[in-house]
Specification:
Layout: H1 10-33, H2 40-65, H3 75-101, H4 109-132, H5 141-169, H6 173-206
Helix pairs in contact: 1-2, 1-3, 1-4, 2-3, 3-6, 4-5, 4-6, 5-6
Length: about 210
C-alpha cells in the first residue's frame, strides 16, 4: 500500500504547470523585445523544450489521475484545467513557431505590447493557482481572475486597433498578412489564458 508520502498534490501540480506558462511567456517577451531574425531558430528550439517539458508533466499527472479514487476537486475539472493550461503553453510555442515559418523580419512595437500582456496574465494566473488550495477562504483569488479578464479585454481592443492599422497603412500585402496572422496568434493566446481563469472560477463556484 502506498503511504501518504506517495499522495499526489494536484494543487501543487497546477502551480508547477503555470511555471511552464510563465517561462514560455518570458521567453516570448524576451524574443520580441530583443528581436533578431538571425537567431530565431534557436529561440524556436528553446520554446519547444519548454512545451515538451510541460507535456511530460501533464502526461505524468494524467497517468496518476487515471488510478485515483478520490481527488480534491472533481476529476473532470482537473482534466479541464490541465488541458487549458497545456493549451496556453502550446499557443506560446505556436507564436514563436509561426514567426519562424513566416520568416518574420521585424517585430512591431504592438507585438511587444501584446507579449507583455500575455506575460502579465501568466504571472497573475500563477498567483491565482497559488491561492487555489485555499479558495474557500481566499479574499484575493476572485480579484486575480477578474484582472485576467480585464487584460484579455485590453488585448481584444489592441487586436482590433492593430489589425485596422495593418489594413489601412501597410502597402506590402505579404507583410500585412504575416502581421495580421501574428496578431491573431497573440490574441488567441490571451483567450486561452482567460479560458483557464473562467474554468477556475466555475470550479470555485461549484465547490463553495
Amino acid at each position: 500500500m502506498a503511504g501518504k508520502r506517495d499522495k499526489f498534490d494536484y494543487f501543487e501540480f497546477f502551480i508547477h504547470f503555470t511555471e511552464f506558462s510563465c517561462k514560455a511567456a518570458e521567453q516570448l517577451y524576451s524574443t520580441f523585445g530583443h528581436y533578431s531574425n538571425d537567431n530565431l531558430d534557436t529561440r524556436v528550439k528553446e520554446m519547444h523544450r519548454i512545451e515538451n517539458d510541460a507535456d511530460s508533466a501533464n502526461h505524468e499527472m494524467l497517468s496518476r489521475l487515471a488510478h485515483e479514487f478520490m481527488t480534491p476537486i472533481e476529476l473532470e475539472d482537473i482534466v479541464a484545467l490541465s488541458k487549458e493550461l497545456d493549451d496556453v503553453v502550446d499557443s506560446l510555442d505556436d507564436i514563436i513557431q509561426h514567426a519562424y515559418m513566416f520568416d518574420l523580419k521585424r517585430v512591431l512595437p504592438e507585438m511587444v505590447d501584446f507579449s507583455k500582456l500575455i506575460l502579465d496574465s501568466c504571472r497573475i494566473l500563477k498567483q491565482a493557482f497559488q491561492e487555489f488550495k485555499n479558495f474557500k477562504k481566499s479574499t484575493t483569488l476572485r480579484g486575480m481572475l477578474i484582472e485576467i479578464n480585464t487584460i484579455e479585454s485590453q488585448g481584444d481592443q489592441l487586436f482590433a486597433e492593430c489589425v485596422r492599422k495593418q489594413y489601412t497603412t501597410t502597402n506590402d500585402t505579404r507583410v500585412m498578412i504575416i502581421n495580421v496572422n501574428m496578431f491573431d496568434l497573440l490574441e488567441s493566446c490571451l483567450d486561452n489564458i482567460e479560458d483557464v481563469a473562467d474554468i477556475l472560477e466555475r470550479v470555485i463556484m461549484k465547490n463553495t
